[in-house]
Amino acid sequence: MQNYCTLFNSKYLSRGLAMLKSLEENTKDYHVYVFGFDDDTYNVLKKLALPNVTPISMQEFEGEELLKIKKERTLQEYCWTCTSFSISYVISKYNPSQITYIDSDLFFFSDPIRLLEEMGSSSVLLTDHRYTKKYDQSEESGRYCVQFLSFKNDESGMEALHWWRDRCAEWCFARHEDGKFGDQKYLDDWTTRFKRVHVLRHLGGGIAPWNSQQYDFFEENGKLSGREIETNESFPVVFHHFHDFKFPDEGAWGHSGDYYLKFDVYQFIYKKYLLKLLELNSICKEVKSDLIKLPKIVSKYEWEKLYLPKLSKADREYFRSIYQSHHSNFVLNDDFDRMDVSAIRKLIQFDFRLEQGYNDYQKIQELVSEPNELADLWNQKIARTSLYLEKENGYDWNNYISTNVNSSSEMKSFEIKFEIRESLKGFLWMPMWKNSCAVRIRTVFHQNGGNKVEIALKPDHTNGIYKEDVLYFFHSHATLQWERLSLSEGSIVISGEWKSLNTWDAYLGIRGLLESHGSKSELSIHGLMVRFKSKLVNLYRRLVGK
Predict the structure, then answer these.
(1) Bridge partners of 34?
(2) pLDDT per residue over 263-299, tens digit each?
(3) Residue 546, Cβ neighbours under 10 Å: how many?
(4) Minimal CB count within 10 Å: which of 234, 261, 333, 448?
(5) Are β-strands 124-128 and 197-199 bridged in parallel, bridged antiparallel, or unpaired?
(6) What is the DSSP letter of 467?
(7) Gene3D superfamilies, per this entry (predicted)?
(8) CB 333 within 8 A of CB 323
(9) Angle between helical axes of 271-284 and 13-26 (0-180°, round to 10)
(10) How buried is 406 (Cβ within 10 angstroms: 0-12 exposed, 13-18 middle, 19+ buried)?
(11) Residues 6+ apart with CB under 8 A from 418
(12) CB atoms within 10 A of CB 363
């Protein structure tokens, strides 16, 4: 029998139940000990009486040592501390031959027995973060992730567990100190500190936002599989770790960290998770749990250019009837139920989420064939143009120069003057924030009094596509960057012609790009759109979050 333990409170109840349901759907001979971290969680678990689940209350679990520690640590730090204590509690009370701790925000797609079988004669199983290089946080957060951590009830397994529990009792805080961080950095040297420690090799155990960029995902015979892009090695996906999953009131749900999620990750992994969370809304709504709800507020751009085009016109009218226009946003009607299942299901079905990009237009391609089918969509008449300044220590993203400009569907002349009051090493210009647009640059110069210095017409970096002398931006965050400059106080003046692209024009432009680039990896924002240095990629992520 596979024995597991986990812990979560009412805020994480929906995620914890989703994890338990996914485990139930993918394995047979197993048992889970669930530590309910508040009375609401424990009571719900007792009432549900889930098969193969033993709820454990805090009153049962907490002894004198833990109660003393609890006073000295935040809730997060206390939960981390209790991980090793919960494993030790199950060992001492129920005496299983092996126990595996699993995070409550995991979701299983196949039987984890294959991960445990890989241990062979080893006594401890660690899972590597397998960070994508650009996201490597090994020095800060540790090489290994506590997410799926197994101990055999033998001398070597118990030596490691008891050492870890004692260290966490001494120190387990959400800060970096003397090579420690929380409960996780303690694992870094276990392969040399202890005997019979095995590091998981199976690529399907531990898919997460910090490593999913390394894989392509697909369904085969009804089961989710992955393929490592570098080696072409295929594998069944066992579980995904939904780290930092958000349920915001404004905008879409989903992962909101700095990690880029490929389109197939959403299609095959996040969508299934969202539907499972939706099923659990009715169980969790009576307690203070995170729930899948309709967003209270959505931006007009996000709504009208990236989501509604994927719907039929009738469905677009339906959502317009429950959301009212308010400045640059749409606001949900006060009398509409935010937990309306049919409306939420439609949002999930048609890929409403935090990160949207070119592949959303690929979805539109399946549904739309004529321009008049999108004629009812909102198109901006006013746009914002902004200049970000590169100073001696880099860009100060919180301070920028911005002004509103008229937006027209026809090419119109423009001249924008940005006053600067300090020396610069470079600058980044966003012609029309949150607008697809086309720009022809005629002049770029710096002026200080009577001195005028010409700047190259062609930027050092851009995420636009050149066609003759016009730059086309078929997405929402047009950027042009000039660097290696030495500019004093004065003004930067940019002139030329520009026009905004309506939804249909932008769709046609992106469709053309998609059709002219065959490889799957080139269809993502980071593959097709971003073809310049990594620091501008990082800038793009920052700006998307604004």
Answers:
(1) 6, 55
(2) 788 889 999 999 999 999 999 988 989 999 999 998 7
(3) 8
(4) 333
(5) parallel
(6) E
(7) Spore Coat Polysaccharide Biosynthesis Protein SpsA, Chain A (3.90.550.10)
(8) yes
(9) 120
(10) exposed
(11) 387, 401, 491, 492, 493, 494
(12) 17
* Cα gap 435→437, rounded to integer Å: 6
- Three-state SS for 103-153 is CCCEEECCCCHHHHHCCCCCCEEEEECCCCHHHCCHHHHCCEEEEEEEEEC
Token pair listed for 508: 């046609």
Tell me which residue has tokens 């009577």. 450
Q: Does position 502 have pLDDT exceeding 90, yes or no?
A: no
171: helix, strand or coil: coil
Question: Coil, strand or helix: which one is 155?
Answer: helix
How far apart CA 104 and CA 97 sit, in angstroms, is: 22
Locate 249 and state its tokens: 């009131």
3-state secondary structure of 521: helix
Give residue for tokens 């400009």. 405
Contact yes or no for 355/260 (Cβ under 8 A): yes
Residue 183 pLDDT greater than 50, yes or no: yes
Pair 355, 253: CB distance under 8 Å: no
User: Which residue, among 216, 174, 390, has the nearest Cα to 225 in the 3D structure?
Assistant: 216
Q: Tell me which amino acid residue 542 is.
A: R
| Spatial distance between the Cα atoms of 30 and 34, rounded to a whole number of angstroms | 13
Model confidence pLDDT, tens digit, residues 434-481: 778 899 999 999 999 889 999 999 999 998 888 888 998 876 678 999
**For residues 343-365, average pLDDT:** 68
Pairwise CA distance, residues 389 & 380, whole Å: 26
- Tokens 């089918």 belong to which residue? 373
Q: Which residues of 220-236 are buried (b: 16+ CB within 10 A; e: fewer)?
A: eeeebbbeeeeeeeebb
Q: Which amino acid is at 8?
A: F
Pairing of strands 223-228, 215-220: antiparallel
87: tokens are 């494993």
Rounded distance between C-alpha atoms, residue 425 and residue 412, angstroms:
30
pTM assigned to the model: 0.76
**Token pair in block for residue 302:** 């996000």
CB atoms within 10 A of CB 64: 7
Q: Nearest CA to 431 among 388, 385, 491, 462?
A: 385
